[in-house]
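ok so i was messing around last nite and threw this chain in just to see what happens. nothing serious, just curious
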Amino acid sequence: MFDLLKRDAVRLVVGLLAACASLSLNGCWERPKPIPEHTVTVMADINRYQFDGQPMLYDQVQAELQAVAEKYRRSASSNSRAYVKIISQPGADYGRVGELIDYCAGIGLDKIEITGR
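result:
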């Protein structure tokens, strides 16, 4: 009877060691990747923007933001794991900033910071 208990205990320990090794190989103890950050600058000129420093038109900015939203979308919710910083340059129409905010919220980019220069 005692040999049977020892054998079960050894099996349990071996099973636990295998489970721990499996978890470590799957990356459960890895540091999470940093949350990506993107910047959209609303320029004073009509329909002129910068996305991460690259000059673009509004429809191009929309396409870039949509790609970011899809790339970092969470499976458990409809929001995306990315930050968007919107910078309004002096002379830029704040209505365009509001339009960007609405667009971002509509595609799941809900972590938005707004600043002016």
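not much to say yet. The beta strands are 37-42, 49-51, 54-56, 83-88, 111-116.
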